[in-house]
């Protein structure tokens, strides 16, 4: 059986949990408590030299890292239902939306970066403002990318990699006090996604390690 | 003809320039001076709502954003030479390496984030230290990912998406004072890449807008 090393609140782990559920795949879930630094153990670093979650071990124990790479691998090895459109231009649009969040938004507000800001002496209100800023910028760009797309999901009638990134990011945005009402098209996609068991069961509060 | 909106020093633009060169494709290069905020003009924001470079306009004027999505589109529409292996697991490894840099490293040290740190009152030496830290963490993980890979490139005998991300990032790392001698396997891949005209001609200092 595959093993997913994750953390209930990690957005990147959350994306992979949704992908596994949509594909109907099961994996053993191995939580690593990020705030306690469990992802920094030598055993885990041998699997994932970044010391980040998620890591997916395939059936033969080979470790895959980076959520988007893991999800594309799942999509290539278990094609149904597809998480990317067939047309190259549409694939590029879905991937670009996902990368606005997975490259330019989430890593700028993750636990590691916020901890570094605190080390530099930034007070807590400014740390939260930083995280809010990163979320607002990323989500505003995403809203612009899909505002003329027919819904209900980000790109059409079925969920794609874009929705897998959007739902966890909106959760982060709310935690950092962002007014997500400014992004009505994104909220439409989120509502469609959350109505699916694959998304609902992947939610942080439904994980065994949730606090 | 395709149009590439970029900036000579932008790592993400640099990646796409290498990909175009490897594929033997030409594009009209349209520089946007990031330090002067030219990427924030309303005309450009209509193409790229993030106000970042690169943006690639295809032959019909459709705008593609996000460097990794652009490169995968180029690879899907112009398959030779391939920038990803055929085997799904190898593809996942190449993509993961690229994402360590494109998601977790570069966006944490880009112009926009460093400007924000300055706005928060961080002195210049601490801003440079921040950028150095992000580069060191990302490159150390990349070194671990490929240290047992046969070279000379990151993943074998030909360049892949991994090398397209590595070469620009090593340039950034040096600018921020990182001791790149700590990453011998990455330097081997960089040397192999820089010997190719496709990489050499994409270098920042060879661009018309270079200062």
From TrEMBL, chains A, B:
InterPro entries, alphabetized: Glutathione-S-Trfase_C-like (IPR010987), Glutathione-S-Trfase_C_sf (IPR036282), Glutathione_S-Trfase (IPR040079), Glutathione_S-Trfase_N (IPR004045), GST_Zeta (IPR005955), GST_Zeta_C (IPR034330), GST_Zeta_N (IPR034333), Thioredoxin-like_sf (IPR036249)
Lineage: Bacteria, Pseudomonadati, Pseudomonadota, Alphaproteobacteria, Hyphomicrobiales
GO annotations of cellular component type: cytoplasm
Keyword tags: Isomerase
GO biological process assignments: glutathione metabolic process; L-phenylalanine catabolic process
GST C-terminal domain boundaries: 87-211
Name of the protein this chain belongs to: Maleylacetoacetate isomerase
Pfam family, one: GST_N_3
Domain (GST N-terminal): residue spans on this chain: 1-82
Organism: Bradyrhizobium oligotrophicum S58
PROSITE patterns per record: GST_CTER, GST_NTER
Domain of life: Bacteria
Family: Belongs to the GST superfamily. Zeta family.
Example GO molecular function: glutathione transferase activity
């Amino acid at each position: 059986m595959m093993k997913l090393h994750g953390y209930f609140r990690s957005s990147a782990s959350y994306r992979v949990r949704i992908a596994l559920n949509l594909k109907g795949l099961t994996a053993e879930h191995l939580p690593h408590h990020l705030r306690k630094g469990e992802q920094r153990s030598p055993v885990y670093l041998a699997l994932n030299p970044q010391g980040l979650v998620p890591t997916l071990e395939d059936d033969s124990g080979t470790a895959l890292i980076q959520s988007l790479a893991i999800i594309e691998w799942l999509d290539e090895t278990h094609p149904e239902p597809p998480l990317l459109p067939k047309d190259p231009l549409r694939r590029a649009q879905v991937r670009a939306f996902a990368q606005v969040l997975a490259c330019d938004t989430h890593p700028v507000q993750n636990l590691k970066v916020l901890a570094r800001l605190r080390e530099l002496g930034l007070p807590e209100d400014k740390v939260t403002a930083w995280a809010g800023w990163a979320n607002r910028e990323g989500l505003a760009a995403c809203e612009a990318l899909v505002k003329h797309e027919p819904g209900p999901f980000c790109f059409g009638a079925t969920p794609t990699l874009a929705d897998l990134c959007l739902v966890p990011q909106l959760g982060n945005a709310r935690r950092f006090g962002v007014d997500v009402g400014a992004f009505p098209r994104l909220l439409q996609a989120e509502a469609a996604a959350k109505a699916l068991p694959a998304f609902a069961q992947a939610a942080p509060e439904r994980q065994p390690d949730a606090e």
